[in-house]
Amino acid sequence: MPAQRPRAAFEPIPPDLDIAALVESTPNFEYVVRIHCNSIDEHGLDNFDKLVRLHVILGGKPLVIEGFHERLDRSVFSEKWLRSHHSTKKAFQGPGGESVTATEGHQTHAEPGNKVGKPGDLMSCLPAGMRAENLMCYIGHEGTYTPAHYEMCASLGQNIMVEASDGSVEYGMKTIPGSSVWFMTESKDRRVVSEYWQSTLGHDIDIEDHFAQINAWKAAPFRTYIVEQRPGDFILIPPLAAHQVWNRGTRTMKVAWNRTTVETLSLALSEALPHARMVCRDEQYKNKAIVFYSLEHYSKLLENVDGKSMDGKQQLLLKDFEHLFALYTQILLSESFSQDKAEEKDVEYIPFDSNITCSYCRCNIFNRFLSCPWCTGGQTADGEDPYDICMECYVMGRSCACLSRLKWAEQFPWSELTGKYENWRDQICRLNQSNPNDQIFWPLAEERARYGKKTLAEMCQGELKRRPWVDITKPVTRKIEDNLSDSESPARKRRKTRLSHESEESGRCHICKYIEPIWKLASCDYCNQNYCYGSLFRAFNIQPQETMEVYRWMCPKCQKICSCAACRRDPSMKPFEPTCTLLGHDTRKIADPRSVESLVDFRQSNLRWLKKAGDDEIERLKKHQKEADEKRQQAMIEYRIQLEDSPRVSAPATEYGDIPVDPALEKLSGSILTPPDSITP
Asked: Where is this region: Disordered (predicted)?
């Protein structure tokens, strides 16, 4: 079961809290940098785009653009308009009591025929029917809130307050001025934030169920950015930057939407989706499909471009095209079958419509997946209810109770996907003839040969043969074996219970000492020791996929990091210390009822192992902080290399008081930064 330990309680923010005094008195609090929307007109959209990329997307820091209330049509963006046009529209309540509703009609009325997706939002590359409806209207009042969370699929969050109560009399009652208080973090601190939430506060931030107390933010080992959002304030939220919001006053009305960029797609595939898979959160943005359709779109834009005479915008477009192609390469490699086995022939083809999701984790499935023909559920309006499992979940040990004999299915002919790969690769090579130092993309067969490990599809092929098939139509029986020695009396008879479907071949886990079927154990290729996947996950932070993907796996004992009691007595061992807290996730209420976890019980925590290692929470947080700083510095270096023609950054100015301002912001945006003294209260 999930860990039972003290957790931080919910504590509301008092209505009379002085935000300025709070920020001034707290060393790790600071205001978010602000610019005025007029400065975008003065310095141009290109400069503003550079500012957003450098400061928000790559720098990972929030940004506020103020002054939009002067440009909004108040006859439309008002409580009265919403009440008269949409008072009967159903809304749902968010975790903190805030009313949330999709505002498609509102958007159409305000800007006929103009969708919110701006240039740079790769969601617009999807066919219209596949796009997520992510434009939302949030209506709050004193005491409503949004718990701490990350933006969906590591996208760039955008939130503007369009209207709020102003202290006037409405419907015969005097109102209280409305605003929203934001507590925000940097993208680079995401691992420190996650570890702090679990180890100190006792909550998992991926569950999005906890609004942290102000004292918790004060004690946090990372910087916290504060914004008091008022009408006209447009907040840009970095990808994977945790934040929470508290509403004040009689009324606040905000419009929020998200933007998917090349950079956020990379973060989504490598970090956000694996985390969402653990807690079974819907993948609403269809990220792999966005990669595919964005490549098609970019390819058309670049098909008539001469590689020797590209302008700056075309070069940036090519860089994004290459970045997307690198992501597409990893997607195809993960779905490639084994080269050493006969090609899978019995693969069902289902034309792609973007609607197939994993029955366990609910992620969107782009192409190949496994489907069980044995345990289709009850009849639905469309017929049978299939059990479809993504390859990532199956490798983790998640599936239906049948465990094996699942059938392969794909949504694109493999020849179509590989054919597009080669066409796009040829296009990149043609455009890069004048830049021989750029990244080299090899033919897919050669990329596969260079991969150096098993692909996801190859691991699934192996596990399908390794795991036993369970006939769910027959009840599981138990055999009772009587082992009676000559010297024992009948009263001392020993019983050994074994499930009838288990293989006779079994082994004992080196850590927990339980005897398990061999398919539930990872066997070392160097010493033949067995480790159950649960012990590997909780004691060594090793996912099942990490042991399956290598051709020769070396166990913790051979690596001299085993932390079991016997190995701790070996002076040559350096016992592994878990690098993060795992509270455990009970996904039974979310996953399909037919689901089981056959390799790892992800409900269990690793608190026992942390206790053995001394539970040095401070050292873990410091380690995550150091890694975050190094990664951010590396990202900034890479970005500056790409923009060698950018002017050198000047030293920071002093007119911003105690607010540290990135010098790059001043250089890119000139006078658009607003000193604290000029911020409108």
From this structure: 88-118
pLDDT at 247: 96
Rounded (to 5) percent helix, strand, coil in the chain? 35, 20, 45
pLDDT value of position 617: 52
Query: What is the pLDDT, as a whole number, of residue 506?
Result: 92
Which ranges of 154-311 does DSSP label H, i.e. alpha helix? Answer: 190-199, 214-219, 262-267, 273-279, 287-302
Query: In the numeric block, which tokens belong to residue 680?
Result: 């409108």
* Nearest CA-CA partner of 184 in 246, 139, 100, 108: 246
Query: Which residue from 216, 241, 218 is spatially nearest to 32, judged by alpha carbons?
Result: 241
Q: Which residues of the chain have pLDDT under 50?
A: 1-3, 103-119, 379-381, 478-503, 632, 635-681
User: Which residues of 135-200 form beta strands (DSSP E)?
Assistant: 136-140, 145-149, 156-164, 169-170, 173-174, 179-184
406 occurs within a structural domain? yes
CATH classification at residue 567: 3.30.40
Whether residues 235 and 339 fall in one domain: no
Residue 343 domain-assigned?
yes
Q: Is the CB of residue 496 less than 8 Å from the CB of residue 372?
A: no
DSSP letter for 70, please. Answer: G
The reply to whether 399 and 521 lie within a common domain is no
332 and 455 co-located in one domain: yes
Q: Whole domain around residue 197: which residue ranges?
A: 19-35+66-112+134-259+628-634
Cβ contact 586:2 at 8 Å: yes
Q: How deeply is 22 buried, as exposed, middle or buried, from its count of CB atoms within 10 A (0-12, 13-18, 19+)? A: middle
Same domain (yes/no): 210, 86: yes
Does an H or E element contain 546, and which?
Answer: helix 544-548
Same domain, 458 and 517: no
Number of domains in the chain: 3
Q: 490 in a domain, yes or no?
A: no
CATH number of residue 150's parent domain: 2.60.120.10
Residues 187 and 106 in one domain: yes
Report field, pTM of the whole predicted structure over 0.90: no
Q: Considering 418, 448, 466, which residue would you say is the last residue of a domain?
A: 466
pLDDT of 652 reads 40
CB 146, CB 205: distance < 8 Å:
no
Indicate if 333 and 424 belong to the same structural domain. Answer: yes
The residue to which tokens 């005097």 are assigned: 174
Task: For residues 681 and 66, give the distance between their C-alpha atoms in angstroms, rounded to a whole number.
Answer: 12
Contacts of 250 (CB under 8 A, 6+ apart): 141, 142, 165, 170, 175, 176, 177, 178
Task: Examine residue 514 and state whether it is found in any structural domain, yes or no.
Answer: yes
CA separation for the pair 492, 485 (Å, rounded): 10
Strands 234-237 and 156-164: antiparallel
What is the predicted pLDDT for the residue at 656? 42
pLDDT computed for residue 639 by the predictor = 38
Quote the DSSP letter at residue 311: -
Closest by alpha carbon to 255, among 233, 222, 282, 225? 233
Separation CA 35–CA 273 (nearest Å): 33
Phi, psi of 168 (to 5 degrees): -80, 175
What's the pLDDT score for residue 379? Answer: 46
What CA–CA distance (Å, rounded) separates 680 from 21? Answer: 17
In which element (H, E) is residue 63 found? strand 63-66
Kindly report the CA angle at 449 between 456 and 265, in degrees rounded to 5?
A: 50
- b/e burial code for range 373-402 (CB count within 10 A of at least 16 → b): ebbbeeeeeeeeebbbbbbbbbbbbbbbbb
Same domain, 426 and 306: yes
C-alpha to C-alpha distance for 96 and 114, rounded to whole angstroms? 32
Q: 87 exposed, middle or buried (CB, 10 Å; 0-12, 13-18, 19+)?
A: exposed
Query: For position 621, what pLDDT does the model report?
Result: 54
